[in-house]
Amino acid sequence: MTRPGATQLNIRRNTLILAATMAVYSAVLQLVAAVSSITFVLVTGIQGLLGLGPAIFLAASAVTAVPAGRAMDRLGRRPVVAAGFLSAAAGCGLTALATNVDSAPVLILGFLMTGAASGIALLIRAAAGDMYPPERRARGISYVLFGSVFGAILGPAVFGPLFADRELDAAALTVPWLAAGGISLLALALVLLVRPDPKRIAEVIAAGHGAPEGPPAAPLREILARPGVRPAMLAALASFGVMVSVMNLSGYVVVEHHHHEQGDVFPIIGAHVLGMYALVLVVGTVIDRIGRSVALAGGLLVMAASTLGLLWIEGVAATALLLFGLGVGWNLSFVAATAQLVDATAPSERGRMLGFNDLVSALLGAALALLGGYALDSIGVAALALGATAIVAAPVLWLAPRTVARAAATSPR
Length: 413
Description:
By secondary structure, the chain is mainly α. The protein has a single domain (about 5-210, about 220-405), classed as MFS general substrate transporter like domains (Growth Hormone, Chain: A). The protein is about 80% helix and about 0% strand. The chain is built from 18 helices and no strands. Helix 4 (about 75-100) runs antiparallel to helix 9 and helix 6 crosses helix 7 (about 135-145). The termini are far apart.
């Protein structure tokens, strides 16, 4: 049996659909980043635990990642991602209800369901990696993530006007959260158009003919021992944990510490999302050329410079620039880590491996959001900036010697 070509496998079509899905759903993630802390404070009245809202969201994302990854390996990518967007729509609806009736239990349930959906949506990158061979894998992942650039424009365009000239109270958050639920349903409709399932494409690419059976999935401990897996996980852990915690707390910093309007948060979060994805097409090509290890360390250093700048910056435009830099650094390290993890796994192992990576990363993000929220409220912005910088820079000390040694070993003599 001959190997189907890219046209028969609908790789280009699937890539465009998944990119559009990311564009739509990233608008929801911007709302979560911008107002989850404030939503929690306004509904519960507990200001000292302002980081608990993002922490609930991130913990739900973490707990969901591994079973979702395993389900993807068994059932395929499309049905699991579709179920995630359905959960997002329900979670945003419950959050809207909670802001209207001031119910903390309903709010927490809404955050849990929306956070679980985020954990599943992040695994779209497994589908992206499935559809491209190793030498083009970082670029393939970047094509799908590039869709979120348009989400960086969509988020402020949708949610900014909803906060314009509004007094910030819980009731003012009802309509934005309802809008986020509707956007989640649009993402669901898009992902249902993906055919064939990307896992099927990966199996065909891996075997080189029509309907192959892949090798049995190895135990997770064996996968973790493979070359390149642990450095990639370390970089992913630091970059994702710091990125999501700083992003989710930045709205509170801008409004409560720097005394700007709530509407000013959305251009800042939009700039951050733009940084995360605007250069992703270039970044994917660069990673394929310079290698995964150099990209991992370089991305972490860019993130460290950006978080350190929060010590001195208070203006909206300058904060947006720092958050843009944070997004660029995350993009570089995250795509490189994802490509390296996909390289090290078979199609039947990728969902589980990426799910485990996301579990650990999101748990760190939840812990950092909780601790960062407490430090932000009791000490100030300096605690958040210095702590985030230390955490994201520390892995470079471990990665750099290995990167230099690998470069020396592969250079011509």
